Fold these 2 entries.
Entry 1:
Amino acid sequence: MARFDLQGSPVSPGVGIGRAWIPVEVGLHRIPERKLVSETSEVAIDRLMAAHKRAIEDLQRIQSATTQELGIQDAAIYGAQIAVLQDPDAHRNLERLVHEEKLQPESAVQALLDKFEGLFKNLEGGDRKNWVADLRDPWLAVIRELGSAEEDRVFESDGSGIVLIAEELTPSLVTRHHRHPLAGIICSRGGRFSHGAVLARSFGIPTVTGIEGVHAKAESEETCLVYGDEGRAVLGATSKQEKRALGLAEERRQVQNALAALAIEPGRTEDGAPISIMVNIESPNDLRMFDPGISAGVGLFRTEFAYMERPAFPTVEEQAKIYESVLESFEEKPVVFRTLDIGGDKQLRYFGHPKENNPAMGWRGLRLSLEWQDLFLMQLSALVQARKHGDVRILLPMITTVEELRRSKELLSQVVGKAEPPPMGVMVEVPAAAMALRDIAQEADFVSVGTNDLAQYLFAVDRDNPWVADLYQPYHPAHLRVLRYIARTCNALHKPVSVCGEMAGQLPGALFLAGAGFGTLSIAPPFVAEVKAVLQRVSADSLRQLANRAAACHTSSDALSLLQVEADRLWAEVVESTSESRS
Ligand code: PEP
Ligand code: MG
């Protein structure tokens, strides 16, 4: 029997098999008490001392730089922090915790911090909180050092087959590790439509969330299984369970290989009506994971990740270089660059985001760009500069009013001067923009619907909040009707319209959207082949009828099951059709 067989929420499909790795997320939570498993206490102490040495060297570096720049007085704090780390009593304690209590080094440091906290709790008066912080901060640096050394070690060994286990599925967690071949992700928290989830799907990493305390339950290096379609996670799997999972993963891979040839063909329905399938990407690195030939171009390049991965705002040249490399990979095909969409759960380390009570409804997306126009003008300049390398289209996130579009167009014309500006489109994510679409679309060059946010705002449900996740219903007829209205409005105005939200990459969603009149779907690369294969098995007229029936339902579950039944039926046909090439 496995150590734990747990049910959570499905976030990204596929079967993942690998060794557990629980990165140390310093400051996010207490380090759980973990005992040594395969490591001896001598090796563990060596690892701890090496991290301790690096933390001290780091502090010494900062101390001497501060002395030079600001003087000895300002640098004194670092001397005090070094002294905290050199306390012989603390060292004796740590050695005992590792040797006698067999705690892993990270847990031993946490136990030491708990001891400090306990001591100060009983003291009267004074600035107790600050005293604890003075002792805690340097030791947290040691934990951080332990974590990054462990990260290097984990990915140095063959790298494949690692299941990442963490408390929260944040965008930075996924992007921090996405260059490594992760086999799966299991988290306690993280909504299905959160940005972390969007990224996990985009990288094709089987992911499950909603398993309370999983980071504390898991043991480093144990075999874990991630069933992304069912939302199931197995910790400490038996060899029989592992074998079965390997068989399922292999079967899946074979179907995908069999569909690979189809992915290169343009998307169309059974009777030949074209449905353009584009891809959503976040970074030029994504291009290592799929062949751009499978898509009609990029329907959504989320430029914020180029900002999130750096220590400071990228310069115009740095941005242009990133944009150009994507354009070159897609040759003549269009690449839709969405301008910076930060705020909410997408934060820049180097930018002091204001504290807002309701950040999703606050200062994010285009609102921020229009206020920080210097930043916006830099991005527009980089995009205009990159135009020499391909077909640049600019997409504005979080449009609420037509005036925002007008202001953005003015700024773009300042950048291009007398030259022809690149096409500028709007994202429909705010219900007001959907209802005023006729006015907005007339002045835009194209429209792209962000269903992830549109559903969030339509249902007044935070897409990241597990407490209200049940009410986040992209398949609710209210949302389906708004989507159908958007498609009809744009088609009547002959305005190109697409959907780049997650629904477009789900089979029931793709069926509905194609039937509702969206001629372009932009989806995460791993789903391109599946969506094309399913659309190819159904006529445009059947799709229209199906979409109308779904929109006429009264509840989300009715509409979803109607679409799901059809998606399952078509998918079964697709799998059946590949069986010949697999046998
Ligand atoms: C959306 O909101 O649907 C969208 C595509 O943008 P993001 O998920 O990045 O907010
Ligand atoms: Mg959005």
Note: Residues 397, 429, 450, 452-453 surround magnesium ion (ligand 2) (CB under 6 Å).
Entry 2:
Amino acid sequence: MSENSFNVAALAGDGIGPEVMAEALKVLRAVEGRFGVTLNITEAPVGWAGIDAAGKALPDETFELCRNSNAILFGSVGLPDRDPTIPKEERPERAALLRLRKEFGLFANLRPVTLPKQLAHACPLKPERQGEGIDMLVVRELTGGMYFGQPKTTELVTQKDSVNPEDKKKTRRILRYERAIDTMVYTEPEIERIAHVGFKAAQLRRKKLTSIDKANVLENGILWRKVVERVAKNYPDVKLEHMFVDNGAMQMMLNPTQFDVMLCENMFGDILSDEAAALAGSLGMLPSASLGNTEAGITFGLYEPAGGTAPDIAGKNLANPIAQILSSAMMLRYSFGLNEAANAIDAAVSKAISDGCRTGDIFSSHDPGARRIGTSEMGDAIAAAI
Ligand code: IPM
Ligand code: MG
């Protein structure tokens, strides 16, 4: 990686992945021209596209490409119609996305949630609950917890029914049923490192961190809270607050502007970040960065929209490409240190929205000046504003 030349693996995947990726690449090309950087972007198949091309959700060549890149720009994978037709270990979510997260140690997932003023109508909450606007960051632990804990299995249980004393023949029934096991497990070092990410992020924002747990029920919650308290001593300038996850979900609906950084374990972060996305108007607006350790000032990362493949609207030029485009901005910022270029993308997205550009998910006929446009027109408008 020379000072202004970077290698990007672009894995578009399935469903709306390819169309939103095309728009992000359009915007990145505009950035290259304007900021004098070279992005060596190589596209490769992943998910069902990988299975169809090379028999695996994460083909070996795609994995090699990722290893030789400075960052991965990821679309989305998985097709609910096709997923059940192959063994669960081979399905795109596990075999491609979760594997990439694990292999590259991408333990810190950042999901910024902002509701621009012009999209207030797209937020399901009443205007008075939106305050001065919603602006929060979900920091989600991404390589631990129930997603990866062992044992993780479904087994057949054979149980002899207890003998009924009333039953003269003393018959025994044999019951057979399946039992599914997922294991929630966290170690102190895992909690510690994600807590540091959360506090550091809060220091750069409004200096408040809400740590989410279920310490009233789960062993994991008790340990989570203890470790977060300990890490907090290093960040006296950040106000720490703890919240049970059920209350957190409710507070996001009642008073979302109280949140600055929300720190979550893997599963809670998955759920609450979708809830947060609804506040931001649409899942199609929510980018994410999945980061590992920083070595020699370089942070390898995987950048993807928080939403899924949306097969119902795939291939129809209806999808909102903004989450993918904002994810590419996060890539420039976190993996390449190109803050100015990243800010230019953020600003171009804001301009397109101010100019009234709306894909269907954020369109409202009550919104004066709004124009309903397709995926590629949205990409054009943002690229033109770079
Ligand atoms: C997300 C997604 C993934 C997750 C799925 C696709 C495996 O929902 O990134 O939030 O659960 O982490
Ligand atoms: Mg999710």
Note: The chain has twelve helices and 14 strands.
